[in-house]
Amino acid sequence: LPLPFSSKSRDFSLPNSSWNSEMKRLYEHYNSQCEVESEDGEKQKGLWRRLPSYNRSLKYATGGVYLSKLIQSKARLFTRNIKEQGGAAFEYVLFNNEEEQRCVGIFQAGHLLEGPPGNVHGGAIATIIDTVTGTHATLLSGTVMTANLNINYRSPIPLGGTVHIESSLDRKEGRKTFLSCRVTSTDGSKLHTEATGDF
Ligand SMILES: CCCCCCCCCCCCCCCC(=O)SCCNC(=O)CCNC(=O)[C@H](O)C(C)(C)COP(=O)(O)OP(=O)(O)OC[C@H]1O[C@@H](n2cnc3c(N)ncnc32)[C@H](O)[C@@H]1OP(=O)(O)O
């Protein structure tokens, strides 16, 4: 997809000083399997593609009919709108595997996302699942809206920890796209959340 963003925008999916070692390790794991450019400028396609992430998709910013013109220009993507120092809320990066129709998110949950003491709020978990699956559905099918998100919370996600989120295509039916999603510990041994999404 062509990126509807100004090249001057900050790409929030690049590593920053708030990322813990697990977040950085997983980032390197997937990033090292992305497209590489050799010294003579030849590009070698990778298995994964890192998806840049901005706080506003400017080209499509036509909504907000109930906002004043002044406030409209200040609208921001929910998951990228915290001005506080990095690491306070949603830190994440997405990688897409076009061939296998899989999209992976690495997510570090900051202290402002607390639900049950010491653990991540269920609404924040739903948000990051919607982000990963919604982006994946967009890559697979073009512009979409989430019609249905069904979430089973299996084990709490510790605040400050890093989890692995994987979205995979179940099927497409006409203009509908059905995805499944799993949130696990980074070594895959613990299942935190399972979800299905219809877009
Ligand atoms: C390179 C990088 C690129 C990345 C680029 C992206 C960058 C940035 C990333 C941000 C990533 C965040 C992603 C957030 C994504 C949201 O959070 S979207 C916000 C939440 N969702 C909404 O507000 C949607 C509100 N609902 C609607 O607008 C409408 O109900 C819908 C879903 C569009 C459906 O409307 P419609 O097409 O007019 O509905 P209708 O014709 O009645 O039904 C069509 C079909 O869908 C089915 N359907 C309708 N509603 C439902 C439902 N609720 N459940 C199941 N099936 C349904 C119907 O049964 C029907 O099926 P068939 O009979 O055709 O088999």
Automatic annotation (TrEMBL):
Membrane topology listed for this record: Peripheral membrane protein
Protein name, per record: Acyl-coenzyme A thioesterase THEM4
Cited CDD domains: PaaI_thioesterase (cd03443)
A GO CC term attached to the entry: mitochondrial intermembrane space
Compartmental location: Cell projection, Ruffle membrane; Cytoplasm; Mitochondrion inner membrane; Mitochondrion intermembrane space
The keyword Signal is annotated on this UniProt entry: yes
UniProt keyword terms in alphabetical order: Apoptosis, Cell membrane, Cell projection, Cytoplasm, Fatty acid metabolism, Hydrolase, Lipid metabolism, Membrane, Mitochondrion, Mitochondrion inner membrane, Signal, Transit peptide
Record-stated family: Belongs to the THEM4/THEM5 thioesterase family.
Cited SUPFAM superfamilies: Thioesterase/thiol ester dehydrase-isomerase (SSF54637)
Coiled-coil portions: none
Domain Thioesterase: 118-190
GO molecular function, one term: hydrolase activity
EC number annotated for this UniProt entry: 3.1.2.2
Top enzyme category: hydrolase
InterPro entries to which the protein is assigned, alphabetical: HotDog_dom_sf (IPR029069), THEM4/THEM5_acyl-CoA_thioest (IPR052365), Thioestr_dom (IPR006683)
Reaction(s) this enzyme catalyzes, per UniProt: hexadecanoyl-CoA + H2O = hexadecanoate + CoA + H(+); dodecanoyl-CoA + H2O = dodecanoate + CoA + H(+); decanoyl-CoA + H2O = decanoate + CoA + H(+); octanoyl-CoA + H2O = octanoate + CoA + H(+)
Pfam families tied to this protein: 4HBT
GO BP annotations listed: apoptotic process; fatty acid metabolic process
